[in-house]
Amino acid sequence: MTDPGPTTAETQKTPEAPKTPANAESAANSANPASAENAANPEIPAGTRIPTPPKAAARRAGLLVTLVLGGLTALPPLSMDMYLPALPEVTDALHSPAATVQLTLTACLVGMALGQLVVGPMSDKWGRRRPLLTGMAIYILATAVCAVAPTAPLLIGFRLIQGLAGAAGIVIARAVVRDLYDGIAMARFFSTLMLISGVAPVVAPLIGGQILRLTDWRGVFVLLTVIGILLTLVVWRWLHETLPPDRRHAGGLGDALRTMRSLLADRVFAGYTLAGGLAFGALFAYISASPFVVQDIYGASPQTFSLLFGINSVGLVAVGQLNGKVLVGRVSLDKALAVGLTVITLASVALLLMTSGVFGEPGLAPIAVGLFVLMSAMGLAMPNTNAQALMRSRDAAGSASALLGTSTFLLGAIASPLVGIAGEHTAVPMAVVQLSCALAAVAAFLGLCRPWQHRDTPTT
After folding, report:
1. DSSP SS3 for 328
2. How far apart are CA 193 and CA 55, in angstroms?
3. Which residue from 76, 286, 316 is spatially nearest to 174, judged by alpha carbons?
4. If you placed Cys at 124, which of 129, 145, 208, 398 could pair as Cys (CB 3.0 to 4.6 Å)?
5. Over the stretch 38-50, which tens digit does the pLDDT of each residue have?
6. Domains of the chain, CATH where assigned
7. In 3-state terms, what secondary structure has residue 331?
8. What letter does residue 247 receive in the DSSP assignment?
């Protein structure tokens, strides 16, 4: 089945050089954006600056747009991973069991999932900037309240609001990529975003661990508030509108629901959406359980945990760059995705065997290796499921992005409390959840996407 979104003419415009369309256009026009058009029309006085469409203006921003979008996609890992080393401390400070404190992660994930369902269609109707700036403002306020929350239920409630508002950055960043790029260029750009946003899970736990040396867990939310303010100012100043008025949807709630229903009725779109969401479920089982597994079961310090988490994130970023710089354009996106899902499944099997005692007491090192392999393979799974799914929808990128994000975060929210169901002293539930998600992702990919029946978007 072919992709109904881009036409042959459009895909022929996709450059094959490593330089992105944004960078190429920026370089070509950096000296004088109006010179080419003025030369073609002698009636225009020399030196007159001609207004450029929003899409062209955003593409000429090149690296700056990439950095802004990378910052928006980095917000979720910053909001969750910086907080991870503090989970045991929050458990003691608020006098709550580990399962209750893990709900602060679940609430944030549920908020991010549901918020995308609202913000995505809004961005298709009103453009990308207005919903994004509104969401960022609410995110700042909710995060500030989290910093002073006196009880676990209040913290859980405002983490939910934080997630609802922070969803604007995730869903609109993906929609902006779909506005600006197509086909193979879009897959490459998602891998580039992974390089930028991947820095967040590398440095976030390290920062969180250092904050705990200076202050308590509340300092993490103070820093997140400051980051939210800075990112909002950057978006307001430098991220231009990428959805022109003639491409916006005029309908209301009914139109948005019909759009989403038609997307979900697309078997291939649904398959990639489920495969990506379930792979993220395996990842989030690790994110949610690893502070207790590494620190409580294996006795590592918060700083050691942060170091191991950073190393795993480096693996994810490195494989993501291998995908974008080497594999995309040479290997079909489906083949790269199949390899990623296979490695995730094998790593989950190995982790289950080790944590259940089949090989005796393995110690921290073998567990850390298994988690490293699992997390690194996400660099093949996540960008390729995003690109393949978004290529199924050109004119409703916000709604498609919302469905992608909602499935991802809902499945992650389900996985989060399950890993602690047997208490804080065994890692077996983590491995069981990871393997279950991996097998379900493979089933969705094979059963719904059926990669042998359709071809990737042409590269020329």
Report:
1. strand
2. 19
3. 76
4. 398
5. 443 444 444 444 4
6. 55-453 (1.20.1250.20)
7. strand
8. G
